[in-house]
């Protein structure tokens, strides 16, 4: 193994391959710094201009390294903590992220030890943490000797923030919580919804068909390069996320409002099923994205950029899909930044918003009209408890329309005794997992 230089280099330009190793780590470090400062990972990825200059292999490596750091941070910090006497690093706190990246390369991604050690020390130096280079070198070398044994004493549970661990233990039990944490560590497969003829599209894309609807395949690159994307034949959508829109049944020629619609996966499903859709979202950039997505798919909807709580439809509608903003704790595989970003107090403000959106939207329905309420959250406060509060406040004018096993398809194992759906990702381990979701269908009687 080569000697990692702990001192600043002044001569000898790095060789080109060393340069590309460093470039990808540098980009990953910038992404992690942006997430640390409060950005969402996908926003940070979009804002990172240098990533598009990398070749495909390096681009995939950056994504894998960044997402693995965010997923496994708790486990890695548990391994490293006893090896660092000067932590936290005060104003140099982001130096932690460089060590995190180094340890992930060594212990999880199993990149070569030489590249992991050298690039970690060099990145410390380049990022202005010259005085921490010696410590980084010592920690990385110690990890090459003891890291694997120490890592074995950790579990995926260590990656959950305390509030989430407590909440899941309380609601789903310790065994399910371990499994939920474990499945959240896996990169998700690519799930696709086709505009038409999913069987044929599954064969074109060499995927398997789930629930006669979702095409699933392994893929860690840029989906827009796959066959049929540019021609608008499909869109990316998790298998569980594809269920709520289908719970509205036959929507052909019906007036449907998709409330909280962007980026538009569910809007596209409703249009493909023949509905006349009004798609509402409060975010300007989000509505622009929805417009672009529908444009690519060759689909049309009436788009409204407005806060759903202020919207008043011209006429009562047949059906509403409310895919409410939520904590998204069911999507940790895709969005591991949520582990560090989400705070327990967010749940209460999200609940207020969900309540206001749902109770406002129920007033837009024709008598007998249906509203499907869904969240990609594993928190009952945003699912079961919200629905029970809505029913209580509805004074018998709003009831649950129980979802039948037939309608739930492969998700029938997630039906609750009230006829709602509580989809827990680990219960679908046999098909490679799904996002966590809650869905309920309500009817406005008058
Ligand atoms: C879970 S995402 C929706 C995903 C979308 N249904 C899909 O399938 O692609 C929630 C959306 O709610 C929007 N939103 C948040 N607060 C809102 C409000 N008060 N009124 C309307 N939309 C809102 C957000 O901009 C975000 O796009």
Automatic annotation (TrEMBL):
Entry keyword Amino-acid biosynthesis: no
Pfam families linked: Methyltr_RsmB-F, NusB
Keywords, in A-Z order: Methyltransferase, RNA-binding, S-adenosyl-L-methionine, Transferase
Keyword Disulfide bond attributed: no
Gene Ontology molecular function: RNA binding; RNA methyltransferase activity
Residues that coordinate or bind S-adenosyl-L-methionine: 260-266, 281, 307, 323
The SAM-dependent MTase RsmB/NOP-type domain, residue ranges: 152-445
One BP annotation, GO: regulation of DNA-templated transcription
Gene3D superfamilies with a match to the protein in the record: NusB-like (1.10.940.10), Vaccinia Virus protein VP39 (3.40.50.150)
Record InterPro entries: MeTrfase_RsmB-F_NOP2_cat (IPR049560), MeTrfase_RsmB-F_NOP2_dom (IPR001678), NusB-like_sf (IPR035926), NusB_RsmB_TIM44 (IPR006027), RCMT (IPR023267), RsmB/NOL1/NOP2-like_CS (IPR018314), SAM-dependent_MTases_sf (IPR029063)
Active site: 376 (nucleophile)
Enzymatic class: transferase
EC numbers on record: 2.1.1.-
PANTHER family named among the record's database cross-references: NOL1_NOP2_SUN FAMILY PROTEIN _ ANTITERMINATION NUSB DOMAIN-CONTAINING PROTEIN, NOP2 YEAST -RELATED NOL1/NOP2/FMU SUN DOMAIN-CONTAINING
Similarity-based family: Belongs to the class I-like SAM-binding methyltransferase superfamily. RsmB/NOP family.
Protein's name according to its UniProt entry: tRNA and rRNA cytosine-C5-methylase
């Amino acid at each position: 193994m080569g000697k990692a230089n702990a001192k600043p280099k002044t001569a000898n330009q790095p060789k080109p391959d060393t340069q590309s190793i460093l470039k990808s780590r540098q980009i990953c470090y910038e992404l992690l710094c942006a997430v640390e400062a409060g950005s969402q990972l996908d926003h940070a990825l979009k804002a990172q201009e240098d990533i598009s200059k990398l070749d495909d292999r390096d681009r995939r490596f950056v994504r894998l390294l960044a997402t693995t750091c965010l997923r496994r941070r708790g486990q890695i910090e548990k391994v490293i903590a006893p090896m660092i006497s000067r932590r936290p690093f005060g104003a140099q706190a982001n130096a932690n992220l460089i060590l995190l990246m180094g340890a992930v390369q060594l212990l999880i991604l199993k990149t070569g030890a030489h590249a992991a050690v050298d690039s970690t020390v060099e990145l410390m130096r380049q990022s202005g943490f010259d005085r921490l280079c010696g410590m980084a070198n010592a920690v990385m070398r110690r990890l090459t000797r003891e890291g694997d044994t120490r890592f074995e004493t950790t579990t995926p549970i260590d990656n959950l923030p305390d509030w989430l661990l407590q909440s899941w233990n309380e609601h789903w039990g310790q065994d399910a919580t371990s499994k939920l944490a474990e499945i959240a560590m896996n990169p998700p497969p690519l799930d696709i919804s086709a505009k038409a003829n999913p069987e044929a599209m599954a064969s074109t894309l060499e995927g398997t068909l789930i629930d006669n609807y979702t095409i699933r395949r392994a893929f860690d690159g840029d989906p827009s390069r796959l066959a049929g994307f540019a021609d608008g034949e499909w869109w990316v959508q998790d298998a569980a996320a594809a269920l709520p829109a289908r719970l509205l049944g036959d929507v052909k020629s019906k007036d449907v409002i998709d409330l909280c619609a962007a980026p538009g996966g569910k809007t596209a499903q409703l249009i493909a099923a023949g509905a006349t859709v009004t798609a509402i979202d409060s975010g300007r950039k989000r509505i622009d994205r929805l417009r672009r997505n529908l444009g690519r798919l060759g689909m049309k909807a009436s788009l409204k950029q407005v806060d759903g709580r202020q919207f008043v439809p011209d006429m009562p509608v047949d059906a509403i899909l409310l895919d409410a903003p939520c904590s998204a704790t069911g999507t940790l595989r895709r969005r591991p930044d949520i582990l560090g970003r989400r705070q327990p107090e967010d749940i209460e403000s999200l609940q207020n918003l969900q309540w206001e959106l749902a109770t406002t939207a129920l007033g837009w329905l024709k008598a007998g009209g249906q509203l499907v309420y869904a969240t990609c959250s594993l928190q009952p406060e945003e699912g079961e408890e919200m629905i029970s509060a809505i029913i209580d406040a509805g004074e018998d004018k709003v009831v649950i329309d129980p979802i039948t096993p037939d309608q739930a398809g492969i998700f029938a194992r997630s039906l609750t005794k009230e006829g709602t759906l509580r989809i827990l990702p680990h219960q679908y381990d046999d098909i490679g997992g799904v996002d966590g979701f809650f869905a309920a269908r309500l009817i406005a009687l008058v």
